[in-house]
């Protein structure tokens, strides 16, 4: 899990602008669980509902009733929250909670597109004050976290700024939403995966791994995006052609020609026929770094790469401790032909 020279990614920080003037009283609200429709499991909807509550808190516009307090009050009042999706039921829930407004909505999937609907209901008048939708086409479930941030911004008016930690001189000008569509990074057409913020155990247990991987320790990382697949010969050749050279900004060589990789042809660069979609090899660290900067990303740190590779596992490998299963998850010398 140490070498990540060809896996390029983008780390995000989400800053939320203050929408309340100092001294202004915040509106009391509660956020109902999102109704899970076709294509979304109840477990996923539950997780996304909690994430939505966090985004509402971060707007700094409301006093949010916590999920724990909601459960306690509903239990005391013998109120069934599950299945409470009608407007009448939502208003009743708001009255029991003693809040002024309620957020409620649903999430489902039609074909390849996820659709999130969210509405803000005034408990006293019973009217829907505002309603918004957010679509996420051809994206995986983890990209819905971005969609929830977007719909929070739409319905509350709070500006959520998402900027990358790379290209420091361009931070203020970059707009993350213009760089990505669904979970596809536009510059190099790479598919990306969202890694949520949180802690993980980095390194290896005693008597496992190398000495520099000890002791195993807990590390916290903010959320970020990472490429799902390795950079291909086709992608790297496109970069070289746009860059116009096989040397980086410091004149250092970025790659070496290879008959199954990229070749220099005239004044340009071409991937070998039939190997366009293969992972690019014979790339130097300088080449990987320059590609990352060109595409609007950067190389991962050791901790960021290891957290993504572990996929939430605390075992020796992401799939468990048994090396017998390794062939089902990776290519290495024992199960691949020498070229």
TrEMBL record:
It comes from Candidatus Desantisbacteria bacterium CG_4_10_14_0_8_um_filter_48_22. Coiled coil: none annotated. Pfam families: CsgG, FGE-sulfatase. Residues 1-19 form the signal peptide. Residues 189-324 form the Sulfatase-modifying factor enzyme-like domain. Transmembrane segments: none annotated. GO terms for cellular component: outer membrane-bounded periplasmic space. InterPro entries: CTDL_fold, Curli_assmbl/transp-comp_CsgG, Sulfatase_Mod_Factor_Kinase, SUMF_dom, SUMF_sf. Gene3D superfamilies: ABC-type transport auxiliary lipoprotein component (3.40.50.10610), paralog of FGE (formylglycine-generating enzyme) (3.90.1580.10). This is Sulfatase-modifying factor enzyme-like domain-containing protein. The keyword Nucleotidyltransferase does not apply. One of its GO terms (molecular function) is formylglycine-generating oxidase activity. Keywords: Signal.
